[in-house]
Design goal:
Blueprint (H helix, E strand, L loop, with lengths): L3 E6 L21 E4 L4 E5 L6 H11 L26 E5 L6 E5 L3 H14 L17 H12 L4 E6 L7 H17 L2 E6 L3 H4 L5 E4 L6 E3 L5 H11 L30
Helix pairs in contact: 3-4
């Protein structure tokens, strides 16, 4: 199910080009991202803007964010959380419920969920029926995903693979497949995982160029690194040249994304 049809980045209205997030290269040009598949991946190097745009989409869609309290002011930036003010979203048939998962704040979120479950045990059903902090980090992720995905709506996931083994990442892929087959959910996922990026039929948007571009799985940086490593395992890991996204995938504002064959 596609609830969220498109996201437009209105960079011509950015108030500042020097400070984060308005200085991120892939977000610098006006562009419209058309979501054509129920499962969409954001791919790109660290600092390329994947998580930043995902958070802006969440804010623009009215999704609550679980944030850690700010404990210091050494790098205070008045624009840090303002990207959503310059992002527009288009719904297919009206706004739906949604959630944002972020690996970096999951520990604090699970503490809260476990505390709530002490007084309301029924809440456990929303995250796998288990007290999350009695599980390993990866087991907690999976319990949360497999319980949370039972609902319908828009699910935004920021690096869900962070605590997951390869086998557990495959379990997450199966959970996504079940939800897509039932037609109840849409997923937009920022990831570095070649396992997740290989999800059958997914749409992949790459953040490594001057604009966000739609690419094939085989063009993603994670895929090519692992292909080269496993193709010559005796050589071990080595630096890999950054590849530019396919120019045919560039999607300036107002143009639909090309089909992936």
């Amino acid at each position: 199910m596609i609830y969220l049809k498109s996201v437009s980045i209105e960079s011509e209205r950015f108030p500042n080009r020097r400070l984060f997030p308005f200085n991120i290269g892939a977000l610098g040009e006006p562009q419209r991202l058309v979501f054509r598949r129920p499962v969409v991946f954001f791919s790109g190097e660290n600092g390329s803007g994947k998580s930043t745009l995902l958070e802006a989409i969440a804010r623009r869609c009215g999704i609550g964010l679980w944030d850690k309290p700010r404990r210091h002011e050494s790098h205070y930036n008045p624009f840090e959380a303002d990207l959503h003010r310059y992002v527009d979203v288009e719904w297919a048939e009206g706004r739906v419920a949604g959630s944002l998962f972020r690996a970096e704040t999951f520990r604090d979120l699970s503490d809260f969920l476990d505390d709530v479950a002490l007084s309301d045990p029924g809440r456990l059903d929303y995250h796998g029926g288990r007290i999350l902090n009695t599980l390993s980090h990866g087991q907690g992720f999976l319990a949360y995903f497999e319980g949370r995905f039972e609902g319908h709506g828009l699910f935004l996931l920021d690096e869900p693979e962070a605590a997951l083994s390869p086998a557990s990442q495959l379990r997450l892929v199966r959970a996504l497949e079940r939800q897509e087959a039932e037609g109840r959910a849409q997923f937009v996922i920022a990831t570095h995982s070649p396992i997740l990026l290989g999800y059958p039929g997914a749409q992949i948007l790459c953040f490594d160029g001057p604009q966000i571009a739609e690419v094939r799985y085989e063009e993603t940086h994670p895929y090519r690194i692992y292909r080269d490593l496993f193709g010559s395992p005796a050589a071990g890991p080595r630096p890999h040249a950054q590849a530019a996204p396919a120019q045919a995938g560039l999607q300036p504002i107002g143009q639909a994304a090309p089909a992936i064959i």
